[in-house]
Amino acid sequence: METLILNDNTDIVTAGKIIQNGGLVAFPTETVYGLGASAYSDEAAKKIYEAKGRPSDNPLIVHVWNTEQIKDVAEDISDTAKLVIDKFMPGPITVILKKKACIPSGVTGGLDTVGVRCPINEVAREFIKSAGVPVAAPSANISGKPSPTNSQHVIDDMMGRIDAIIDSGECSVGVESTIVDMTADTPVILRPGGITYTMLKEVVPDIEIDKNILNTVSKDEVPKCPGTKYKHYSPDADVFVVEGEKCAVQAKIKELILNNKDKCVGVLFIYDAVYDDAIMLSAGKNNREYAHNLFKALREFDKLKVDVVFAEFCDDRDYGLAVKNRLYKAAGHKVIHV
Ligand code: TXA
Ligand code: MG
Fold this sequence. Notes:
338 residues; DHBP synthase; alpha/beta; globular; 2 domains; 10 helices
């Protein structure tokens, strides 16, 4: 299949038409790039699963161009859900609501709920508006790979597999949206992201964090967020998290580099770049920057054919929880506490 590369200014109408005709378009959002199709079409949803190589029981998020459009796809929206929508949308958050019948079960992985998200990225909103329908979209990566945070990542994964890619530079947040289940009596954060627990607690004082956020889900357990049971964000390199205070982390990583002399070693650093014999990439000065850089760095290490990555980490407050969640998954939960 030929994949068109579309301009984020002049080609938005073309992108919208492709969606109307049942095709797939990758588009930028403030979190990561999405792989969009009409949310009203079972057929189009099937194409998404095929292009990503994703299991079809993992539901897609439905994207709307403004908060008015939410009522087209979801019903029984509680007052608390309305508060969250008013406060944080458009923005990097997804709310799980009861789905309307117009959303086919192929989009929601057979669930009677739907994840709804209204991005704040202007190109995303123009695109969804021009499609004339809500847009179902997962992240635009091959299933299991780190989510794409710039258009080159999407080109690397999706060229020849989808109809078009809107080329629109870098995503500002860099990790996927916060997911909040608003269908339970007590709202639960199923995935941490750009809207933090602290921010949500101000509006929903009793909000909880799902225990699976930092754990592996056992094979027999049915997770509330089906995506959490799959291998995720995993680069080709073997990733280890080294967590703790600066001196201890640096001493440990120096020792690990010595013990891995036969391998090409990468270090994702937050403190100072003090290592010899390793390829070093900066995670940034704080967790907001870490979130922005993480997926890009994991993909970069793979391009550089790094065998093993040691990622420094220390602080899981606020944005840090989203970083920790992605980092632990990328590492397959191989965490060294020092
Ligand atoms: O920031 C984002 O959310 C990006 C951009 C493109 O919007 N999208 C994204 O989609 O990350 P995806 O498919 O990679 O991750 C969606 C997650 C999956 O883990 C899925 O299981 C969960 O959301 N999910 C979707 N609908 C759900 C539902 N009805 N109930 C529970 N979990 C749901
Ligand atoms: Mg994804």
